[in-house]
TrEMBL record:
Protein name, UniProt field: Type II toxin-antitoxin system RelE/ParE family toxin
Originating species: Corynebacterium sanguinis
PANTHER family: TOXIN RELE
UniProt KW Protein biosynthesis keyword: no
InterPro entries: RelE/ParE_toxin, RelE/ParE_toxin_dom_sf
Keywords associated with the record: Toxin-antitoxin system
Pfam families: ParE_toxin
Similarity comment: family membership: Belongs to the RelE toxin family.
Coiled coil location: none
Length: 85
């Protein structure tokens, strides 16, 4: 069972702004969410509406999972000091 990955426009824009090697690492991690949307190390955020986050070096990917539609929606991507603001 494979999930489809979708991005909100601001998350896609944030990835495009990053240098090529960082963007590639983030995209590899995001693509792996298609086969396992809750990989080891993913954490459910408190106070949100079922959002999760994964670490990729100093960067964080915040995403939501829609199990009924088999969709992983990437909500925010950014450096760890900025992504939660």
């Amino acid at each position: 069972m494979s999930y489809m990955i979708t991005y909100v426009p601001s998350a896609a824009k944030a990835i495009r702004k990053l240098d090529r090697s960082t963007a590639r690492r983030l995209l590899d991690a995001i693509e792996s969410l298609a086969s396992d949307p809750r990989p080891p190390g993913s954490i459910q955020l408190k106070g949100g509406s079922g959002e999760f986050r994964i670490r990729v070096g100093d960067y964080r990917v915040v995403y939501g999972i829609h199990h009924d539609e088999l969709v992983v929606l990437v909500l925010r991507v950014g450096h760890r000091r900025e992504v939660y603001r």
